[in-house]
Structure to design on (43 residues):
């Protein structure tokens, strides 16, 4: 698996992102394109 993809760049902090949650195994992001669905609560 390539570590040069957009997601690895976000995780490494090379690209801007809005992280709503992060731990040792998980990173949750909000879509930077302005998605209409912005609910971060689990159903």
């Amino acid at each position: 698996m390539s570590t040069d993809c957009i997601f690895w760049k976000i995780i490494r902090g090379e690209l801007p992102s809005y992280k709503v949650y992060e731990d040792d195994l998980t990173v949750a992001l909000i879509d930077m394109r302005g998605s209409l669905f912005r609910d971060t609560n689990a159903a």
The helical segments are 6-11. DSSP finds one helix and two strands in the chain.
